[in-house]
Design a protein that fits this description.
Blueprint lengths: L3 E8 L8 E6 L24 H11 L5 E5 L8 H13 L3 E5 L4 H9 L5 E5 L6 H8 L5 H12 L4 E8 L6 H9 L7 E5 L18 H12 L5
Helix pairs in contact: 3-5, 6-7
Length: about 230
């Protein structure tokens, strides 16, 4: 059963170019030590009712431009299909879905049934098993990630791939290799690590890049490559 862990009523950054509300699902199959939503990793915990979310969107549809769904991992539970179908049918608003890419069969189904208008997939590291196992805390099947990337790249819908850059974990070379593997590198973005509320408390000791340092990191990644 799909469990919902929260709602941001309006956001200017979660759905590119749109004022959106953000629905959070509970439960994730990854155990990323740097996760900034650790309270949503497990399925148990405080919940919000879907009917309350529907009522809010219904009362806000005059100015709301989109609906973003994140987690946790939204594609962990097949019930997400019913929720997406309902939201698309009732509100006729663009819907964005975030995913870790570990469920290509769900990505495929959602694309084929036109249940999202925008996919955002996190690419945690280079697609090398040892690196991905380390950063996700699980025994990963790299083929799942490759399939999801391929499906999204060839879906015909809008999308973005993104990596959270952690000092001492990701090198410029790592990021360049990820970027080179993508069909459209301009659809790949980087975000700076935050140590405010990580799943693994040891990550509080990692100092994030300053804005200046992060800008320089991105410039170095782009130097000599397609922008």
């Amino acid at each position: 059963m799909l469990k919902l862990g929260g709602l941001i009523k309006h956001s200017l950054k979660d759905y590119p170019g749109k004022i959106s509300c953000v629905i959070f699902t509970r439960g994730c199959d990854f155990r990323c030590p740097f996760c900034h939503n650790p309270g949503l990793i497990y399925s148990s915990g405080e919940e919000i009712s879907f009917s309350d979310i529907v009522d809010y969107i219904d009362n806000s549809k005059d100015w709301l431009e989109g609906i973003a769904i994140t987690g946790g991992e939204p594609l962990l539970n097949y019930d997400i299909v019913d929720m997406l179908s309902f939201l698309k049918r009732k509100f006729k608003l663009p819907v964005k879905v975030d995913t870790n890419g570990n469920h290509p069969e769900m990505v495929d189904y959602i694309i084929k049934n036109k249940l999202t208008d925008f996919f955002a997939m996190d690419i945690k590291h280079e697609l090398v098993k040892e690196k991905y196992d380390s950063i996700t805390g699980i025994n990963i099947n790299i083929d799942n990630l490759r399939q999801s990337i391929n499906l999204i790249e060839n879906s015909g819908i809008d999308y973005v791939f993104r990596t959270t850059v952690i000092p001492g974990v990701h090198s410029v070379e790592n990021i360049k290799n990820i970027k080179k593997s993508l069909i459209r590198p301009e659809k790949y973005t980087l975000q700076n690590f935050s140590n405010k509320n990580p799943f693994n408390p040891a990550y509080k000791e990692i100092t994030p890049y300053t804005d200046t340092e992060f800008d320089e990191f991105k410039k170095t990644v782009n130097r000599g490559s397609a922008q």
